[in-house]
Amino acid sequence: MDGAWVYLVTGGCGFVGERIVELLSRQDYIKEVRVFDSVAREEVEKLSTATTRVTVMRGDIRDAGALLAAMRGAHVVLHTAAVVDYRGTLPFGEMRAVNVGGTENVLRACCVLSIPYLLYTSSIAAVGPNTSCEPLLRSDFDNQLTPLLRAQHQDTFCAGELARTKQEESLARVMGTGIMLTPQHPTIIENASVSLNPWETGTAEIPSDNAAPV
């Protein structure tokens, strides 16, 4: 590494994103970590080190122009920004605009700017759950849903899962463009101070091991 790499983290002021920023800031080969978030918290910039500067930029991934400007000059993008709705209270249109439209903006910007590396935090909801415990294909998505989820399939409670599936389809379209794309599908991320859903509170923390280069 030549010590001049620039990383950009969408959603870098969130729980997962901030932890990623903290780990990246410890890497001597990274010159700058840019944080692009609609809720910009300036205290995240305090994660800067002697070798790595952390810069917080306020912006919305639905704003393609602002996103393109923020990503210019970056070598690696880590896309963690998303809307999560455990209670089914958000309109599907809003979730789709952020989770699908915003992700498509990130992908387009990577293509326009020839950014070679993109790591995307998706969700296990994009591929399950199902009754057979086998990987889901588009052809059997509806057939493999549990009876409860099949009934909820048209409900806003499943809007997040449907939006995530659309995200995966958008990601598939950039394969072969030269971008090194790495989707991740975590089931759940826990922290003692974070309420995960209406019935559960996490008790574990993300380990503090140093991050490996992408």
UniProtKB/TrEMBL annotation:
> What keywords tag this UniProt record?
Oxidoreductase
Domain 3-beta hydroxysteroid dehydrogenase/isomerase, residue spans: 8-145
Gene3D superfamilies for this protein:
NAD(P)-binding Rossmann-like Domain
GO molecular function term, any single one:
oxidoreductase activity, acting on the CH-OH group of donors, NAD or NADP as acceptor
Q: Name one Pfam family in it.
A: 3Beta_HSD
Picking any one GO biological process from the record gives: steroid biosynthetic process
Name of the protein in question: 3-beta hydroxysteroid dehydrogenase/isomerase domain-containing protein
Taxonomy, top ranks, is: Eukaryota, Metazoa, Chordata, Craniata, Vertebrata
